[in-house]
Amino acid sequence: MYMTTHIFKVTGMHCASCAAIITKKVSSLPNVASVSVNYGNEKAKVEFDPAQVSIASINEEVEKLGYTFVDESVSNGGGHDHASMMKGSELEDLRDKTNFIFPVALAVFVLMLWDISARTTTIVPNLPIPMTLFNALSMVIATVALFWVGKPYLLGVVRFLRHGIANMDTLIGIGTGTAYIYSITITLLPQFRELLSLPEYTYFDVTIVVIGFITLGKYLEARSKEKTGDAIEKLLSLQAKTALVIREGKEIEVAIAEVIHGDVIIIKPGVRIPVDGVITEGVSFIDESMITGEPIPVEKTAGDTISAGTINTNGYLTMKATKVGSETLLAQIIRMVEDAQGSKAPIEALADKISGIFVPIVLGIAVTTLVLWLTVGSSFLGFSDAVSLGILSFVSVLVIACPCALGLATPTAIIVGVGKGAQNGILIKDAATLEHLHKVDTVIVDKTGTITVGKPTLVDIENVSGMHDNEFIGILASLENKSEHPIAYAVVNFAKDKGLSLDDVSNFEILQGKGLMGVVNDTKYFVGNTKLMRELGVAFSESLIEKYTEEGKTPVIIATKEKVLGFVMVSDEVKSEAKKAVGDLHKLGIKVIMLTGDDERSAKYIAKLVGIDEVIAHVLPKDKLEKIQTLQAEGRVVAMAGDGVNDAPALAQADVGIAMGTGTDVAIESAGITLLHGDISKLVKAIKLSKMTMRGIKQNLFWAFIYNVVGIPLAAGALYPVFGWLLNPIFAGLAMAFSSVSVVMNSLRIKAKKL
Ligand code: ADP
Ligand code: MG
């Protein structure tokens, strides 16, 4: 069965249990394989068989529940604008309602406090309004509050009655609706009231104030939630709209979508680079800060790659487009950030489970509370008082128990964390990776390209072949010219600088982790490290090699089957930030191990320079994988940072695989985390970010839970018999609104923290 995955923007979700309802409904449809609905970024990911189910039919089911799916994958990019427009109008609607209801609710709240004080103390005079007028006015306002502002809550009740599905809206709808119906009955049917000898109090104020506070809370929450996701907006704004291309010898400005591979593009100073490509002419400083987080502009010239979204600061350049549209690094980053923000962290599973079963449980508690008041309560207090207190408790329980904050706790923090990472050149694949990273206690680093710059140069020659040095280097460089290893570039560049010509090589073969072999002018040569020479059984001067490796240099030995012809030494500079980064990792209590295929002595020298604890040298790529497995078996949580060239299996085995992106040509989907610009100090930042995000999530979950845990018994009146405490629904509404807003604000705080 062929499956396809669609991302939908979801509108109409007011609470996290909405996400649970949609998930339940859609996953129950035939031929739908998986559904994941995220309340945080209001997106749904649905995997289904397009031959059996249509998007329209999925949407139809969702609409029955009162939500809408807007298909985002159809019109790439366009969907984004559409969805954010819809979101904008939802927000506006909420704002209008808040502007009306909140001042009114506040006034009612003040009058209510006044009334209570007037009745309980002698200092405060009675309200200067006739009670009948006040009641009549309250009734009108409560009607507007419930039927206009509170419409989503009433729809929640309707949905509950029709489909048996309850969410948080349902809870608030039942709560405020009950207070309203009770009050209307008392006001309009005085005979009925007298018949049951009910008190004269009405609870229109409860309806007004609860709806007022909760609506304000939702509005503030929606506004801050938009801010949690603004990293994406910023990335999108990096995309240039047009490009100045040369077509048929003329400069013309075309829309970015019309730029094709191979287009020659003119980049004037101060202009944003429109697509990825290679500079063909000119020199300029390129500001890459928005993509890599690197604050200092980098000088680039012909042959260097530049990527879309970066800014040409001062020079006049021409470039050739190599990657356009969705292929650019920027487009990949945007996709990855969006995906990661919408993904679920393992820690969220618990919150999801709880909000899924919470609503029916709360309804049960509320009904039980009411029944207990009417039976047990009325035997102590008399029926009349028990009814008023019972109604108040019933409403309070429904309002305070809303698990709104619970559903916001994890996704809002993940959205902020992933976005903050992207702005610092730390690309995180998914929420699970971000969560795992905070537990890492061992970091394994590759030497070449991670600790060292990765651009070694040839520094010494020991030629014992009897050939002239030029011939000796010529043969070596011819062979190395076929290799991709950084060592190879050192040798080839040296030969080229000397103007040596290279010979043809046949029967070339890479000897993984050791070197290479090939035939030049009918002679078979082997090039590589001491390990390779020992295996071949050819003799070489160990002491001479040692002398160099103790200085951190790497030997490249060349031999025939019979004897060693000599060697060259290559040396790679240690990255300036490596030492500080290793120190910072130590401060976080993390052990750093360097794994390398390089010579042991040379590797140890480098390790000592930067303060690395342990070196494992002469390892073959497959041994790297085994070493990680051993560490994991010891109970260590391992992150592996490598250039990804021959480390892919090890990166995959590690708990967190970290690709050091060098240059701009990185396959960012291959690792859990990609550090743009190959900067190891970013790994420290990534770990700090993960710790920060996880701490935020845990605080959020605590605050979300504590409201419910403390609030529900208090609201139900469990403490009334002991202390006479009962939570007025109005304060339940206030607490509710406050808990959601505080959770979102707490997540937003992560944004401001220093990495
Ligand atoms: P690493 O990425 O840690 O350098 P590799 O497996 O790529 O590990 O290489 C291991 C070792 O094999 C190198 O340190 C070097 O000694 C030798 N080697 C690999 N490729 C070449 C090459 N093209 N020329 C010479 N030596 C090589
Ligand atoms: Mg390597």
List keywords for this structure.
27 helices; binds adenosine-5'-diphosphate; seven-stranded mixed sheet; six-stranded antiparallel sheet; 755 residues; Calcium-transporting ATPase, cytoplasmic transduction domain A; 5 domains; binds magnesium ion; 53% helix; Alpha-Beta Plaits; alpha+beta
How would you explain this protein's 3D organization?
With about 750 residues, the protein is α+β, with helices and mostly antiparallel strands. It folds into 5 domains: about 5-85, Alpha-Beta Plaits (2-Layer Sandwich), CATH 3.30.70.100; about 90-230 and about 340-415 and about 695-750, no CATH class; about 260-325, Calcium-transporting ATPase, cytoplasmic transduction domain A (Distorted Sandwich), CATH 2.70.150.10; about 425-445 and about 575-680, Rossmann fold, CATH 3.40.50; about 455-575, Calcium-transporting ATPase, cytoplasmic domain N (3-Layer(aba) Sandwich), CATH 3.40.1110. Helices cover about 55% and strands about 20% of the residues. It contains 27 helices and 26 strands. A hairpin with a 3-residue loop joins strand 17 (about 505-510) and strand 18. It is elongated and about 120 Å long.
Percent helix: 40-55%
Overall, the morphology is elongated
Strand order of the largest sheet: 14-26-25-24-15-22-23
Largest beta-sheet characterization:
7 strands, mixed
Strand content: 15-25%
Number of helices: 27
Average pLDDT, all residues: 88
What compounds sit in this structure?
Answer: adenosine-5'-diphosphate, magnesium ion
Which stretches of 5+ consecutive residues score pLDDT under 50?
Answer: 74-80
Structural Rg: 34 Å
Distance between the termini: 46 Å
The helix-and-strand class reads: alpha+beta
Number of strands: 26
The tally of structural domains comes to 5
